[in-house]
Amino acid sequence: xxxxGTAPGTPDxxxxxxxxxxAHRRANRSRRRYWREVGWRHIVGILAIAFAxxxxxxVLSASFxxxxxxxxxxxxxxxxxxxxxxxxxxxxFPRWLWNSLVISxxxxxxxxxxxxxxxxxxxxxxxxGRRGGLLTLLLVQMFPQLLAMVALFLMMIRIGDxxxxxxxxxxxxxxxxxxxxxxxxxxxxMKGFFDTIxxxxxxxxxxxxxxxxxxxxxxxxxxxxxxxxxxGLLAFIAIINDFVVAQAVLSxxxxxxxxxxxxxxxxxxxxxxxWGPFAAGAVVGSIPTVLxxxxxxxxxxxxxxxxxxxx
Amino acid sequence: MATPTQTPxxxxxxxxxxxxxxxxxxxxxxxLGGDGGLLAxxxxxxxxxxxxxxxxxxxxxxxxxxxxxxxxxxVLASVALLAVYLTKRAVPLKYLVPGTLFLLVFQxxxxxxTGFIAFTNYGTGNILDKGQAVERIVASSVVIPEGAVRYDAxxxxxxxxxxxxxxxxxDPEGNEFLxxxxxxxxxxxxxxxxxxxxxxxxxxxxxxxxxxRQVQDRQGDFSDLNVPVTxxxxxxxxxxxxxxxxxxxxxxxRIYDPDADxxxxxxxxxxxxxxxxxFTSDAGEVINPGWRVPIGVDNxxxxxxxxxxxxxxxxxxxxxxxxxLGSVLLTFAVGLGLAITLDHEDLRGKRIYRSLMIVPYALxxxxxxxxxxxxxNTEFGAVNRMLGGSIPWLTDPWLxxxxxxxxxxxxxxxxxxxxxxxxxxxxxxxxxxAATVDGASAFQSxxxxxxxxxxxxxxxxxxxxxxxxxxNFNTVYLVTQGGPPIVGAQTPAGHTDILISYxxxxxxxxxxxxxxxxxxxxxVIIFLMVAGISAYSFRYTKALEELx
Lengths: 311, 548
What we know:
- The complex is a heterodimer.
- By secondary structure, chain A is mainly alpha-helical.
- Helices cover 72% and strands 0% of the residues of chain A.
- The longest helix of chain A is centred in the N-terminal third of the chain and has 52 residues, at 13-64.
- By secondary structure, chain B is α+β, with helices and mostly antiparallel strands.
- Chain B has 21 helices and 16 strands.
- Chain B has helices at residues 24-33, 37-64, 68-86, 91-117, 130-140, 188-191, 212-217, 219-223, 298-305, 307-342, 350-357, 359-362, 365-375, 382-387, 397-426, 429-437, 442-470, 473-480, 499-508, 516-538, 542-545, and strands at 142-143, 150-157, 165-170, 176-180, 184-187, 194-197, 200-204, 207-209, 227-231, 234-241, 246-252, 254-257, 262-265, 270-275, 278-281, 286-287.
- Chain B is elongated, with a radius of gyration of 35 Å.
- At the A-B interface, helix 1, helix 3, helix 4, helix 5 and helix 6 of A face helix 2, helix 4, helix 10, helix 11 and helix 12 of B.
């Protein structure tokens, strides 16, 4: 679009003037054309960003606002303070955050492990029931665990009667429940990636005397690291976002609450008074997910078209 | 992968290799050690160790608790695990078993159990099994009859007075007993070493005598205390404190006859028979609590026939579909629009737009749902203050629906934007050029060339998104909690409730108590509908093609 400047010091003045006049006319026309073709796109883009960032900006501002009530909010606070963060730290929040990280981290790690094992056998071995198994997994993931929340709730109470350590109100119990949903679409995602690793690698290793387990742990796993990261991240995000299964399993024991339960109960019906500390909690609680997302963004974006829907 | 020189103890049905004559210990060592390198050995040893420890820890406790299903599952799972990991056969199973085991226990079983509960009356008032209910009814009918055996009583407790409580009982003939709650009455000689101060007993075994003041301090413990009295192994009554120093033997007025399966009230001579999980007299009088029993399809017929439930249920049902469909269409329209708008070669700062626009996608959705609930608050919310009104965003039935869709649009458009951008860029430029050369206008080219190509990639994702939003609990529950409530609904139902939040509220929040049976019946209905969606989407799933 840079048609306004002509090179200085051209010997022929007449030609230069003509060129300048032409350029001016062109510039007028092209400015109109620019707006018709490109400029309006910026306006749409800016509007979309305003919509996307609207709650984010409000929450960031509220978390530093000296007034902790919803009524006292301004987009740009008069002065900034960390008071809300201090109040937040005196609630159960540190424990909720820790519980969320422990539960999501452990469950995501084990999900990756279980998934990789299953994907390896589906990708590399041929056995009776392979096709049926893959189809079953596709079918299973259509029925999310939260549909069975009542049964899970009653089942965990019963388990807790006999083994309090993994029953209702325990983090270990919730992790076990989440592992029930480990296989499914993730296995498909992984299998697809495993399929892209040439089998010649396996075969040459086998010729050298490696066992199936050695091939899995020492040759295949390092090569599929990107998909392990993506599945781990998707699992982590889905689990940290879960409210209803966590609530069904953990609600009886306040010590074990995750962020979603804790913050919901903290803010529920008290939007007026507790907005500031809640906003601080939202900021702190989002950091782990945002960091992970930023780190793995390029993998996620390419994985999206293969069917991962965020939970 | 099977090597011919193996001797698995668990033989597969199709095994025909000759047996190995090596020393059993050697074979065991080989199996445990394997030849899979350090990691594989460790993994295998871990699985085996966990299996054995689990079985040893869990089975005795489950037997003690008579949890026979659990025993069967644990034993079968342990045998299967050992069979798979201690032999060299069934290599694929070694990789599939761990995930499958969790899948069976924590996904397949709960689903099947949901199906079972849906056909029972499980819920408040019918929470116990029959044995527990009978026990509870008999225990709560206990009264002290005229001419009952009375005792002088003194409180006792372990741990120097802070531990478990018991009663020191003296009957009218002067015989002394120790009455321990939940255990029974034992004569002092059998109860442990007795320490006396003159005639006065001060300690029996671990129990020390409390003075009146101490008994009063622990009033709660002592007033709840019941010492069962057994004759020939049957509980025939219970001893309880009447005052702080006197106890009496009380007897039940309701007697259960296990042979006739009836409950008789001796004081009125009324006979109660079990009807649908409650003891009911011929006159129709019922005794609480009831117990859980299968009641057939009642829960399902209630949803469709009971007038106070059917109305709200139908509304929830319709809104569920509208919400899921509306969310998909809105997010897709906005996402596609933005993708087309920002996909222009001369546009500067595309990367900045993209990275800022996907911020909603990167934030935890439960958090942003709660944030929106605050921003849309009628009195103090930022949205209303910006607009300068007091619009009831979350409390008006229609506005609440619109708000939910708005929040879900905010949560979902970045995903659609990313997907559409990717799909648009994957369409080869020559195709569009060819259309232009043939004289197609920009709109025609978009309508007849771009859209069909785009839909091939995006259609399965739209169906997946529909299925996801169909059960999008977080957006609905965390923003409005299903509210505002539908007036006159018998079950807790709100104008923005979708089926899954309706299930949650029936099961866990109802003011009239929990109704697990009905909640499960609704869950089963959702299952059926999701199955319908899935059957439809299977036809679009590319992944299936490679399997055919």
